[in-house]
Write a structure and sequence with these properties.
Pathway: Protein modification; protein sumoylation. One of its GO terms (cellular component) is Smc5-Smc6 complex. This is SP-RING-type domain-containing protein. It comes from Jimgerdemannia flammicorona. GO terms for molecular function: SUMO ligase activity. By secondary structure, the protein is mostly helical. It has a domain at about 40-165. The protein is about 50% helix and about 0% strand.
C-alpha cells in the first residue's frame, strides 16, 4: 500500500477584521427607548371590555354563594353539620375571591379614568400590579371578623342556616365583641314561613314599593 503523501501547504492566514463602530455601544443606545411612550386617552375605552368581564365573573360568584346557601339549608335540615361546615368554608373562599376581583376591577377603572383624564401612564402593567398588590395586602391583613362577619352574603348564609331549626328565635351575634369602634356586627331576622299557612316559602323574594306623590288639580 502506497504511503499517503502529506500536504506541504501552509494553512491560510487568519482573516483580520478592521475594527469598526460597535452598533450596540452605550453611546448609541438610548437609556430608555420608551421615555416618550404613553397611552393615548382614546385608548381608554378599550379597558371598558375588561371591566365588563369582571362584572360577569362577579355575577357568577354571587350565584354560587346563593346556591351554596340553599344547599346548606337542605343539609342542615337533614342533620349534616359537617357538610354545612364545608359549605361555609366555601362561602368564605367565594368572599375572598369576590374581594380580589373587586380590587382588580377598581384598579382597572382607576387606570381607565386617569388615562381618559389625559394622564400619561407609561407602564400600565406595573401601575396595575402595584395598585392591586397594595389593596390585596390591606384586605388580607384584616381580622377574620372584618372580612366575613360584615359581608352581606355571609350573614345571609348564617341567618338562613340558623332559621332551619330556630325559626322563631333571633340568631346570636356572629361576633359578640366588635373588632373596633367602626365595625358593628349585628344580625337580621327574616322569617321564611308564610304568615297565613305557616309553611316554608318556596323561593322567597322581597319587593320594594315606591310611592309617588303628586298634586291633585
Amino acid at each position: 500500500m502506497a504511503p499517503i503523501a502529506s500536504s506541504s501547504r501552509a494553512p491560510p492566514p487568519p482573516i483580520e477584521h478592521s475594527p469598526g463602530p460597535d452598533p450596540l455601544s452605550e453611546a448609541e443606545v438610548d437609556e430608555d427607548p420608551f421615555e416618550n411612550f404613553h397611552i393615548e386617552p382614546a385608548c381608554a375605552v378599550k379597558l371598558n371590555n375588561l371591566v365588563g368581564d369582571f362584572d360577569k365573573v362577579l355575577d357568577s360568584i354571587t350565584h354560587g354563594m346563593q346556591r351554596g346557601t340553599e344547599t346548606a339549608c337542605e343539609l342542615e335540615e337533614v342533620q349534616e353539620p359537617e357538610q354545612v361546615e364545608k359549605i361555609e368554608f366555601s362561602i368564605r373562599t367565594y368572599i375572598d375571591l369576590e374581594n380580589r376581583l373587586k380590587i382588580e376591577k377598581a384598579a382597572m377603572e382607576n387606570l381607565r379614568d386617569r388615562i381618559k383624564g389625559g394622564e400619561k401612564i407609561k407602564n400600565l402593567v406595573a401601575e396595575y400590579q402595584t395598585a392591586v398588590q397594595r389593596a390585596t395586602d390591606e384586605y388580607e391583613n384584616q381580622p377574620e371578623a372584618a372580612k366575613y362577619f360584615g359581608n352581606e352574603a355571609f350573614v345571609d348564609f348564617k341567618q338562613k342556616v340558623w332559621e332551619v331549626h330556630h325559626p322563631d328565635q333571633e340568631m346570636p351575634p356572629l361576633n359578640p365583641r366588635p373588632v373596633d369602634d367602626d365595625l358593628v356586627i349585628g344580625t337580621q331576622r327574616v322569617s321564611l314561613k308564610c304568615p297565613i299557612t305557616q309553611t316554608l316559602l318556596v323561593n322567597p323574594v322581597t319587593r320594594c314599593v315606591r310611592w309617588t306623590y303628586g298634586v291633585v288639580p
